[in-house]
């Protein structure tokens, strides 16, 4: 009897693991990886100026969590932000155009790689000031609940961002508001082991980062974020909980970045080539691909079709960016301050 039960639940688990959604997630992860590789190439060709921080190795963190959210939830990220907005549905051509500094970019060519913004798709930035967006995410989550919606905010940040003052301010306010069920925010620590060239062991007095968040009355847990199944499993549960309770939660996603900190970080003297190679054995794309092939019989041809499609979409994005015009000079004076002043108070909101 007990045995039968186990067999049945294993069969259910297998069916869930083989749901078409997972193949779609693999398709998205392959696309993001090829997009990021193209940005590095275009940077070397001199087509992308300023800063460029790519996401290769960390894909499961963005896709595992965002695939568990709803369309009208809102998302904040740091400067390693290409994957997040692409997954939310931003047009790849417009994202690439932003990196090229072109007028057709998602931020009209004035933000660049670190300041992507696409409110229409729920992406509220893209921030170059490390940790600066955490307070915005907490405040926005409060606003979502104040307006009596069931929407939530998701806020991604790096391990290094936990050492700046605004991290503590944001956590404290979120913890306080959460007591009243007024702060539906999911904080996601993308712990990739390094803040630029400084390892977590060297930059954080307490290396258990999830524990640091609990000091502010925010529950948290760690997840192996090279395994997208594990990330999604946690995300499904906690996103539902946040939506129901209006209380914040934090996931520490343990991951690794395969490229340098930014495009200029070529020598990477703070880590060995061997360390990077070791981590490549746990490439999140490889893990998902192997799982789908072994458990669900995913065919090589299907994977190849994802590769072909990614190559095509990335090439089209680069072409669009290359052929787009630069912003007009006058654009310098737009979007600096709110152009129409404060929004007038609508009659029906006056008590
Ligand atoms: C307020 C501020 N201080 C310093 C910097 C310089 N800086 C850029 S990235 C970075 C490290 C951030 O590391 P982490 O948060 O772990 O993100 P990761 O690059 O690993 O994704 C620092 C210190 C900055 N951009 N903003
Ligand atoms: Mg980091």
Compile the SSE list and pairings.
Layout: H1 2-17, H2 20-44, H3 59-66, E1 74-77, H4 82-88, H5 92-99, E2 123-126, H6 133-146, E3 153-158, H7 165-179, E4 185-191, E5 194-195, E6 198-199, H8 200-203, H9 209-214, E7 220-224, H10 228-245, E8 249-254, H11 273-280, H12 284-296, H13 300-323
Parallel strand pairs: 1-2, 1-3, 3-4, 4-8, 7-8
Antiparallel strand pairs: 5-6
The structure holds thiamine diphosphate and magnesium ion.
Describe it:
The structure is a single chain. With 351 residues, the chain is an alpha/beta fold. It has a single domain, classed as Thiamin diphosphate (ThDP)-binding fold, Pyr/PP domains (Rossmann fold, 3-Layer(aba) Sandwich). The chain is 47% helix and 10% strand. It is built from 13 helices and 8 strands. The strands form 2 sheets. It has a 6-stranded parallel β-sheet with strand order 2-1-3-4-8-7, sandwiched between helices. α10 links the parallel β7 and β8. It starts with a helix and ends in a 28-residue tail after the last helix. Thiamine diphosphate binds next to β5.
